[in-house]
Specification:
CATH topology of the largest domain: 2-enoyl-CoA Hydratase, Chain A, domain 1
Order of helices and strands: HHHEHEEHEHEEEEEHEEEEH
Largest sheet: 7 strands, antiparallel
Strand content: 15-25%
Number of strands: 13
CATH architecture of the largest domain: Alpha-Beta Complex
CATH superfamily of the largest domain: 2-enoyl-CoA Hydratase, Chain A, domain 1
Number of domains: 2
Structural class: alpha/beta
CATH class of the largest domain: Alpha Beta
Radius of gyration: 21 Å
Helix content: 25-40%
Distance between the termini: 72 Å
């Protein structure tokens, strides 16, 4: 017999997964629960059930759900425990007068999210002052994390208004948008700059989005946010295909279930859920993708 603490912990985690997972209807839960319990035989603490929970998540086959133990859960992230691992955006004006922005993955505290968004908008303002012929936005190594500071920072290039949505099996969609330095989900600001947000001098100049197989999750959300933006085009390879949204479900010991619950949609309502193909296929290395994008930018009419 498993002690009540461990058994109750595992049962609660399985209940959350069964009620909320995007692919819950594809699972035969009687068999999955029985196997999870078998895998946890001998467990005496909640931590002893972690492997059984991870196995259960793997049965969903969504490629995106995962288990965060207490030291990697949402509480640890929000507290700033991993802020030292973060990389802020950087950029420069290329010799061919294209403004280049490197937009890395992001995971960190709310304070660091604001720094990330500010860094992007400050870069955009500095580069815009040089009157670039277009923009090159490098997401080739953006493996995801928190999409909201990315959208808040890129807001001047994305434009104000709806950018995309999360679609759910049984609930109304929730809409991503940008307004005055804020990235919003419906009407709730989830990341923002410290100021009101920069306004581009030429908001329709071409924007080339660079992507690779390493571009995933929130990196893919940024690509989708640019769908429908005039003058935007994707270059590189197909992305990883994690165009789904995860919700966070805290567990009693400080661990977190990061559970896939919905899919991404663009501002026109097209639903994804799979890899994004480029508009223009260019094999790596990244310098080759940049060269393809630069050629296209210079072919566009001056705006």
């Amino acid at each position: 017999m498993m002690p009540a603490e461990a058994e109750g912990y595992l049962a609660a985690a399985l209940d959350i997964i069964e009620r909320n997972a995007l692919h819950r209807d594809a699972i035969y839960w009687g068999a999955v629960r029985a196997e999870a319990l078998q895998r946890a035989v001998g467990a005496s603490t909640s931590a002893d059930t972690y492997d059984a929970i991870r196995w259960t998540l793997s049965q969903l086959q969504d490629g995106h759900s995962f288990f965060g133990p207490p030291d990697r859960g949402q509480g640890a992230i929000a507290s700033g425990q991993y802020d030292g691992e973060a990389t802020l955006p950087h950029g420069h004006l290329r010799a061919d007068r294209i403004a280049y922005l490197h937009v890395p993955a992001f995971r960190g505290s709310p304070a660091l999210a604001t720094r990330y968004a500010d860094a992007l908008q400050h870069l955009i303002a500095q580069l815009d002052a040089s009157d670039p012929v277009g923009w090159m936005i490098d997401l080739t190594d953006n493996g995801g994390g928190n999409m909201w500071p990315m959208l808040a920072g890129l807001g001047p290039l994305l434009g104000e208004g709806p950018l995309g949505a999360f679609r759910f099996p049984t609930q109304p969609p929730t809409v991503w948008s940008y307004r005055s330095g804020h990235a919003l989900l419906d009407d709730v600001s989830l990341a923002n700059t410290t100021g009101a947000g920069y306004l581009l001098r030429h908001p329709t100049r071409p924007a080339a989005l660079l992507a690779s197989r390493r571009t995933a999750s929130s990196g893919e959300a940024v690509l989708i946010a640019f769908v429908g933006r005039p003058g935007a085009r994707r270059f590189g390879t197909s992305t990883r295909g994690l165009t789904t949204t995860n919700d966070e479900f805290p567990l009693p010991d400080g661990a977190t279930l990061f559970l896939t619950v919905g899919t991404f949609a663009d501002r026109h309502g097209r639903v994804y859920g799979q890899a994004l193909a480029p508009d223009c296929f260019c094999n790596e290395p990244v310098d080759h993708i940049k060269a393809c994008a630069a050629t296209w930018i210079h072919e566009q009419p001056s705006k």
